[in-house]
Specification:
This protein has 69 residues and is mostly helical. It is built from one helix and two strands, in the order H-E-E. A hairpin with a 6-residue loop joins strand 1 and strand 2. The structure holds zinc ion. The site of zinc ion has 8 residues, from loops.
Length: 69
């Protein structure tokens, strides 16, 4: 009986965790790719000092402190 439960746990646990992790990764990937193009393509600022791309609401480069306009 104990052996049966142990084997059931052993084969089911990792699979469920893998499925949960895979679902989470898919959700995170789709939400970030949905958000990014609209934010950066809208009014993106590219720093002239270092080339870092910032969203439209940024006024100063968060990397080198150069003013964005
Ligand atoms: Zn910069």
């Amino acid at each position: 009986m104990v052996y049966y439960l142990a084997t059931l746990n052993d084969s089911d646990g990792p699979l469920l965790i893998a499925l949960a992790v895979a679902a989470l990764v898919v959700i995170l990937a789709t939400s970030s790719t949905k958000k990014r193009p609209t934010m950066t393509a809208d009014r993106a600022h590219t720093c002239r000092g270092c080339g870092t791309v910032h969203p439209g609401y940024a006024n100063f480069c968060r990397r080198c402190g150069h003013r964005l306009d």
